[in-house]
Amino acid sequence: MAKILCVLYDDPIDGMPQTYARDDIPVLDRYPDGQMLPTPNGIDFRPGELLGCVSGELGLRSYLEGNGHSLVVTEDKDGPDSEFERELVDADVVISQPFWPAYLTAERIAKAKNLKLALTAGIGSDHVDLQAAIDRGITVAEVTYCNSISVAEHVVMMILSLARNYLQSWDLVKAGGWNIADCAARSYDIEGMHIGTVAAGRIGSAVLRRLKPFDVHLHYTDRHRLPLEVERELGVTWHESPADMVPHCDVVTINCPLHPETENLFDAAMIARMKRGAFLVNTARGKIANRDAVAEALESGQLAGYAGDVWFPQPAPRNHPWRNMPNHGMTPHISGTTLSAQARYAAGTREILECFLEGRPIRDEYLIVQGGHLAGTGAHSYSPGNATAGSEEAAKFKAKVPAEG
Ligand code: NDP
């Protein structure tokens, strides 16, 4: 029987909701490229409920315990005295989420003698030292596509919010003000702008499709080029590299995974190549953009705005410069954990667990690492190596002591 250790974000401060804002969520047939939605043998939750936090338990407890397995769920993930580190030593499976990542560094993997599966309840497994997982023969899997559209919608919202100066205008109203000139002095239409995505995978291409009706000029860069008919349909221009693309763009959106090739991609030199006053939206991973270079570019005006929901580490220390830099639209890591997305990633997590526990193959599209090498989606979208360095900083955030600096 297996021990499953699951790390999820805290419950709402006032406890689990008794009612929800809406009674249902739309039922989808398939993902946009035809990929099947998650196909577990069953689910023990109602789609639309909060599942991604500790009490939500991804709806897994009755299934796992009913089959004789044990489930430990905790939000206490950082530092050597955390419940995660204590429970890890004999866990067979670790489930974690990018929103509240249980960083699986090489040191932690070395302590986890029984670990066979690191399962991401979402997309993006950079919080796992993939090189260490490759070396130890641990399988790494994620719920590919489960929240790609959720993020694409968020990207469009962030681009419009920055360009239209929405956040500052909203702040002004909340503060009792009415000075229209203050709102309008930084407000632009995106019509006619040049907008480029770094990566045109599931999220990047969904962003392109959603932006096309705004009559903008679309650009992308990716390691693999889109089919020519798709390029024509979207009217999108391909560039050899991010460095080639960014000088042409008024808005850049980052939609590639974090791995050694993309870590620190948007450093001071890359940002200097961008047009003065460009907007940068990053919902991919915090470490793809250099923390200090972004803050400095907003101070100097090289960037007119920066938005997204990904930081490094997570949770971000309270003194992280992105919390207080000018003209930012940052939120905690939320774009991929809408209630709609939660239903899909909980069902996908259950599907992967069922496969693992019953000795059936995990779908190729869910695989990142298997059998000592990058596999499935991982072989296409990642490069081997480790992107977890520095994650111990996350212990600086004390979740339940809001006054601490
Ligand atoms: P996909 O695997 O569909 O797409 C990733 C794309 O990135 C692929 O097209 C890949 O190219 C491309 N890519 C990889 N490396 C590079 C590189 N060095 N330069 C340019 N392009 C590169 O994943 P998704 O679109 O679904 O998700 C992308 C990322 O978004 C995730 O890995 C995750 O980090 C983040 N994400 C964030 C969420 C949030 O809540 N904020 C939720 C979900 C995802 P190719 O395969 O052609 O080599």
Write the layout of secondary structure elements.
Elements: E1 3-7, H1 61-66, E2 70-74, H2 83-88, E3 93-96, H3 106-111, E4 117-120, H4 130-136, E5 139-142, H5 148-163, H6 166-174, H7 180-184, E6 194-198, H8 202-211, E7 217-221, H9 228-234, E8 236-239, H10 242-245, E9 251-254, H11 268-273, E10 278-282, H12 291-300, E11 303-308, E12 328-330, H13 339-357, E13 367-370, E14 373-374, H14 376-381
Parallel strand pairs: 1-2, 1-3, 3-4, 4-5, 6-7, 6-9, 7-8, 9-10, 10-11, 11-12
Antiparallel strand pairs: 5-13, 13-14
The structure holds NADPH dihydro-nicotinamide-adenine-dinucleotide phosphate.
CATH topology of the largest domain: Rossmann fold
In this entry the ligands are: NADPH dihydro-nicotinamide-adenine-dinucleotide phosphate
CATH uppermost class of the largest domain: Alpha Beta
- Global Rg: 21 Å
Helical content stands at 25-40%
Q: What percentage of amino acids are in beta strands?
A: 5-15%
Q: Biggest β-sheet: count, sense, barrel?
A: 7 strands, mixed
How many domains, as an integer?
2
CATH architecture of the largest domain: 3-Layer(aba) Sandwich
Q: Return the structural class.
A: alpha/beta
Binding site for substrate: 123, 147
Biased composition (Basic and acidic residues): 393-405
Family: Belongs to the D-isomer specific 2-hydroxyacid dehydrogenase family. FDH subfamily.
Pfam family, one: 2-Hacid_dh
